[in-house]
Amino acid sequence: MEKQKGTWRNATDNAKRILRRGDRIRCTRCGGIKRTYTFECWDGYWIMSKSGIDDLAATNIDMLNGKPVDFSVC
Question: Is the pTM of this model over 0.90?
Fold first, then answer.
């Protein structure tokens, strides 16, 4: 459990350094469905999209502006 928390924190810290308003991010949602969102801002540790979705986690992002990304290892 601690390793998972560390990975989540690391991914969030890396994403906070890299993501800029307007970036296109693809996230895996419940059920394995992948959706693309436009990054707007941070709400604590959660990513908020331009459309108001506010429960996106950095560990679930696999694409940034059309390129593969893994924030847990940046």
Answer: no
